[in-house]
Prior knowledge:
alpha/beta; 5 strands; globular; binds ligand Z5A
Amino acid sequence: MTTPGKFLSLEGLEGVGKTTNLAFIKERVEAAGYELVVTREPGGTELGEALRDVLLHSHHSMQAETEMLIMAASRSEHLASVILPALADGKWVLSDRYLDASLAYQGGGRGIGVQTVRHVHQLAGVTRLPDKTWLLDMPVNVGRERIQKRGKLDRIETENVAFFERCREAYLAVATAEPERIDVIDASQSIAEVQAAIDKSLAPLLQRID
Ligand code: Z5A
């Protein structure tokens, strides 16, 4: 019987270094001999990428609840058609954001509430949590400074500092509630220090039992 793969996710506010560290984790997992599927949210499927465009790059105004439901729809599709089949096939999956992003941004930032967002995801069939999540955390202004250099901001990135402070608070509250799954990493450290911290919690997962 195939041993199911592990499900990993990276979380944090914009500019904390998720993209930068994806490549590092990929290299470590593949060096240990596992096949890794790297994916992202919103997105990860053809439909999800179309929904990503609506969420981030369209000029439609939308209610907070609408935004949450589109995120949940995209995630439901992603989980059922990409993540679960890959895991069942013995592959590892690394997602650039997953459910915790909705708990933080829609639950905290938009003020819908973490419990309501969790409940909606239960209804949408999103019942699988990652085996390990790294929450890259740092003060809001540091991440904003990093992304300003990139120019054009998407629909959510144009929100104000208070919005991102609420997202950060919700992220940290979720991490406090699930310390086994979520490792909080100080993302204001150097890239080498961040990667050493990720490596420390990744290493035990990579040990083969077969
Ligand atoms: N969203 C949501 O609301 N609800 C949901 O359920 C989901 C998402 C899933 C898209 O996310 C938006 O969707 C996001 C949340 C919302 N909106 N916001 N805001 P995304 O993940 O596609 O976009 P992002 O968060 O804006 O990603 P990003 O800006 O690309 O951030 P990043 O990947 O974490 O950063 P990076 O590109 O790796 O690093 C940024 C820069 O910092 C870069 O120049 C690096 O070289 C540099 N860097 C990285 N690490 C370091 C360290 N340690 N020191 C110094 N410099 C560093």
